[in-house]
Amino acid sequence: MTRRFSPVTIRLAALCAPLFLAACGTVTPKAFSTEEIRERATLDIASMYADQEPITAPLDFNDAAARALKYNLDYKLKLMESALSRSLFDVSTYEMLPKLVAGAGYSSRNNDSGGVSVLIEPPRTVSLAPSTSQERDRSLANLSFSWNALDFGVSYYRAQQKADQVLMAEERRRKVIQNVLQDVRNSYWRALGAQKLLGRVDLLLVRVNKALARAKEVEKQGLMPQAQVLGYQRALLDAVNTLTMRRQDLELAMAELRALISVAPGTRFTLAEQSEMALPNVLVNIDALEKMALEKRPEIMEEWYRKRVTENDLKAAKVLLWPNISIDTGLQYDSNKYSYNSNWIDSGVRVSWNLLKLTQYSSLQQAHKNQNDTDDMRRLALSMAVLTQVRVGVQRYDLSLSELKFAEESMQVDQRLLKYAQSAAKSKFDSELEVIRTEARALLGEYQRYAAYSNAQAAWGRLYNSVGLDILPETIDGHDVKTIARSLQDTMAKWQKDVFETRTQ
Question: What is d(CA 317, CA 497) in angstroms, rounded to the nearest whole number?
Fold first, then answer.
């Protein structure tokens, strides 16, 4: 008997054969070319600094912090992660919906389907001639609705997990904001000191180098005792070394601030010559500060949300232990001309229960208890670390204020010594050297005062960060740099008024 294939079957086979052969082909590793890598690097550099507001005026502290929050890449990443978590949550809510599936198809065979009947009772003879009730070629369509109780229960707890993960992403975003502000606080005041001192350091270095050359000439001509001349040279070399090291520190501070606010290479900007911000006094009621930290730290809140995520994971596993109810209904269509009804509706309800899964119940209960105990202990350990950070932060801040006071007194003494040396200077070589040495000492004292102030700002920033105080309000009017700067200033002023006392300079 010769088999005959329908034209449709032949066409489908001819279409699928090349696809099958292509899928069986070999796939080899292909590295990016040098040109592709170079192009990607160029595009990445352009993307880093794209769509930035130009710097048209000197930056004060709030402006620098605002630019860091708006353009810092780490913060942008956390914003995207938060948006992704929210999108995944939105997707998970649709998984709780019943399934509504539409389908259509075409069926073809090369011969007829059919059969005969055989009597049940002996002699089991054939009662009918071979016949068929199905066409060789037919079209099919259906629209089916189904609902599964276990799938709904699991999807419900998965959606709750996604909702908690949205909140976790928000807490991580809060933490990044706090860290960005702390980093800006650490570098801004050092950079401002650098801007004030760099020019004076360069001028003094020129004078020191000239005085060093003169000292060498005096030594060569024997105009002064060698021991005295060598002593001056030693003092001048120490001044050069110290000034050079401090100059490097100042330049690095500007570089760090430039990186934090994501300023493109080659962009020139200046910092506003603002008065130093008042520093708060050391708190007396540390217990209240510790309680506030336990309530507001993003890490603790994130860990608390993570506990709910793990709890819902175990709840989803428990749902699978119970009986399952499935409801199905659908519209069906079959173009078979031998069918009495080409359209029909079929419905069904099914209940099933995997009784062997009940043996997991006690294990799941124990796992639930152990997981809760582990999460609670992890949170308690984190809370202990937070309390330690608060107390250490208070002590460091107290020490930084003491260092600032000492640096201010030292700077005042160095400036008085400089005035005395300048007024007592004569035309003698040793007097000139003494003036230069005293001037270097006064400049270093001024640098140490700026450094002490920036260290005090950094210590207060760490204390501020250890409490977990928010940097921005929940809503802001706009996202331009000036609006963010005003929001930062208002929020920090509110916290400083409510939580800290201001230290008068």
Answer: 49
